[in-house]
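We give this protein:

***
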Amino acid sequence: MYLGLDLGTSGIRALLMDEEQRIIGSASAATPVSRPHPGWSEQDPEDWTTACKEAVAALRAAHPAEFAAIRGIGLSGHMHGATLFDRSDRALRPSILWNDTRASLEAAAMDADPRFRQVTGNIVFPGFTAPKLAWVAKHEPALFDQTAMVLLPKDALRLWLTGEHISEMSDAAGTSWLDCAARDWSDDLLTASGLSRAQMPRLVEGSAPGGHLRAELLTDWGLTGPVIVAGGAGDNAASAIGMGTIREGQAFVSLGTSGVIFAANDAFRPLPESAVHAFCHALPDRWHQMGVILSATDALNWYAGITGTAAADLSRELGDDLVAPGSASFLPYLSGERTPHNDAKIRGAFTGLGHESDRKALTRAVMEGVAFALKDNLNALRQAGARIGRVTAVGGGSNSGYWLKVIATTLGIPVDLPVGGDFGAAFGAARLGLMAASGASPESICTAPATKASIAPDAGLIAAFDEAYARYRSLYPALAG
């Protein structure tokens, strides 16, 4: 048996899987977020361990015999969080999370230093780890001076599980300290941040062993051991492992709260000016590129709240037949935008409203606006060298057949819908635990799910969608100005 632990922002999920990759069961527990000031987002690392204990206890109670056969554990977690420990491995302050924007000035200053983009291959975004340490150095200097180790959230959980300071490449790539091509910490960038390699965890590959479960936990959880803990992965890379997106040309589009186009690469292909993330994958000698929009299903849910109608009902009333875009356009920048604009201040808009703009027309405009933002991402990814000929759709938005037709016709590529199943980050983490414990190859483990349906672009409507996309593209400069 293999255990996947996925530390999300709102909770942790524990998933139990057997050696044939059949899911035995799962359990979750909540992790509260604290927002003591506008733009701040923090969590107490002790809440992660408390939630992990709760989820594991529930899973063990439901499947005691299977749980006792655990041989490997994989970890996944939200990226970029700055979790500071002293020499006694005590957390010095709450972890500063990925969606915390307090370090925007520090991020801009770091990004102005050409070494950061040259070495990491990425813009220094305010949510990344390095600028948060610069903020702590400026505003909490006593804590900065006590910092003996900086860990990412899932690796702080690993510290509790194993007693070791270890991270892996996919998560470390989001710190602004990793030389992503060399897959190693950059001493130059650490020095520029007032830090040293001694304050960084040891790096392993995501599918390699990254510690062993402590004897105390073996006893508490009724395990005989030894139990290997894999290096693991950042959340999107772990989802890619679960989806089997590991080879050049494989890609998925995630329609969750945010929207992601994730492309696996066999080489490191940075193009930071595009605001595309170019990170290490969770497997050796593989990388990935990622375009991110900040509001995907979030945009439809926002509109659903205004109309007083559930998002699923709004989708259903559109029917099955795709229609050409109308006069109304929607820009989904409700909380700024990441790729390709890197603009935290831009906000969304409806334009081109007329008497004919009824509820269905505006629902279509919202779905089209999200699809157009994803096309911005696809173009940026292709500019950065990604080869994407089709995508697999995952996330809650993929339940809307109409929306998938919009996306396929907008992107001009087929969109595949997988058969029902759990292919998320916890499943990907369990797969990494299996590989680390058994030595099995990624090719034998990281298979893609079967395809339930493929949605092809509607050839008769491509021209109309291209015209609407051109109109959409003209609106950002006007709004930004």
